[in-house]
Write a structure and sequence with these properties.
single chain, alpha+beta, Alpha-Beta Plaits, six-stranded mixed sheet, binds zinc ion, four-stranded antiparallel sheet
């Protein structure tokens, strides 16, 4: 069994939490990933890995580090994002990386510098053992997951490992599925007129009521009847509505932004088609009803079979390290694994737990960081294989 260096892994985590890497896409003026990328590049070089930077935006590079295999084995990517969400809601010092009762506190401790520290702790342990991988072992530290995922989008253009483990916080469960989402805008078009001119005006806001009613029906008649064993049901909700100009004016336009949360087998095209059909029906029933639907943004969900080789390798490693069978789980939130999966890289999600991702108080359980590191190290040995 590989032994994790606990003080070293804790020091890695502390240093990373102390580096502000707030995503500037989310929080204007955020520090970005430049400094932490520099720190990670140095640390990976100290570990003897080949390091290269991949610029995803000015001063915001991915760090790709490679432990070249001796040949003949499968390659593995251990990956996670360097960016963190804003700290506007955090009292005190969000980057002080305070340790208390086995927890390390601070923005990004859980989401997901704990997972990055587990990766570094695993590789440091493997480097100080006699292990030599047969296949390449890749580390991918990416930018911008909390906003547009520019980091992983670029990473998959450069490397195609045989499998990946994404160390987002799962509380040491093995996550094999997560939801996707689609953002759409529905617009009803009326006719502007003075409020007294009932036979001239067409009220776009009232017409939006019909679409809101359809949304309720969709939730009741479709979404509530589907059930994924790990992800529950899909859902749709109204997010933002706007329309109307004044008391005495018929509104000529009303816009409603909606969000669908999708199961892995659902596509944005299918929800778009559903809305297009609803608009056709409503216009057929009332010639004055006029509306449009537009798909603004989509992130498909993701799922991998529980018996996929990378899941089995991780489960075997988990068994050896923890002495139990792991829990398989799904996550509601969207993750970079969907991009990795779509690029043909079978990916499972496995990382340390804690509480408060994106919240006012955030911490990671140190013990879970160390156990995660030990499982990752064992899984990497199994997957990348020692040469004969
Ligand atoms: Zn995350």
């Amino acid at each position: 069994m590989i032994t994790i260096d606990i003080p070293l892994t804790t020091a890695y985590l502390k240093e990373m939490v102390q580096i502000n890497s707030v995503n500037p896409g989310l929080s204007p003026g955020g520090a970005g990933e430049g400094e932490i990328a520099g720190w990670l590049a140095r640390t990976c070089k100290e570990l003897g890995l080949d390091v290269r930077l991949q610029e995803t935006a000015l001063g915001r590079p991915n760090v790709l580090a490679r432990w070249p295999g001796m040949g003949g084995g499968k390659s593995l990517l251990l990956t996670g994002h360097m960016d963190v969400v804003g700290v506007e809601n955090m009292p005190g010092s969000p980057f002080d990386a305070r340790v208390e009762d086995g927890r390390l506190y601070g923005r990004g401790a859980l989401d997901m510098k704990g997972g990055l520290a587990a990766i570094l702790g695993a590789v440091a342990a493997l480097r100080s053992s006699a292990f030599q991988p047969a296949g390449d072992l890749w580390l991918g530290f990416v930018t911008d997951e909390e906003y547009l995922s520019a980091g992983t989008e670029l990473l998959v253009q450069e490397i195609r490992p045989d499998a990946a483990i994404l160390t987002e916080p799962t509380g040491l469960d093995i996550c094999i599925a997560h939801k996707g989402f689609a953002w759409l805008t529905l617009t009803t078009l009326g006719r502007s007129a003075h409020g007294s001119l009932y036979d001239e005006g067409i009220d776009a806001v009232v017409h939006m009521g019909r679409l809101l009613n359809r949304l309720e029906c969709l939730e009741r008649d479709y979404a509530m009847r589907r059930e994924h064993p790990l992800l529950g049901r899909p859902s749709v909700h109204a997010s933002v509505i706007s329309g109307g100009v004044g008391w005495s004016t018929y509104p000529d336009r009303c816009a409603l932004r909606i969000e669908h949360r999708l199961l892995p087998d659902e596509s944005a095209e299918s929800v778009l088609a559903w809305w297009q059909a609803a608009l056709v029906e409503l216009s057929a029933a009332d010639p004055q009803f006029q509306a449009e639907v537009q798909l603004d943004f989509v992130r498909p969900g993701y799922e991998i079979a529980r018996d996929a080789p990378i899941a089995r390798a991780l489960e075997a490693a988990y068994n050896r390290v923890i002495g139990e069978t792991p829990v398989y789980t799904g996550m509601f939130a969207w993750l970079d694994s969907a991009i990795l999966g779509r690029a043909g890289i079978p990916t499972v999600i496995f990382g340390p737990g804690g509480e408060g991702a994106h919240a006012a108080v955030e911490y990671v359980n140190l013990d879970e960081v160390f156990r995660c590191a030990a499982v990752l190290a064992e899984a990497a040995v199994d997957w990348t294989g020692a040469p004969a």
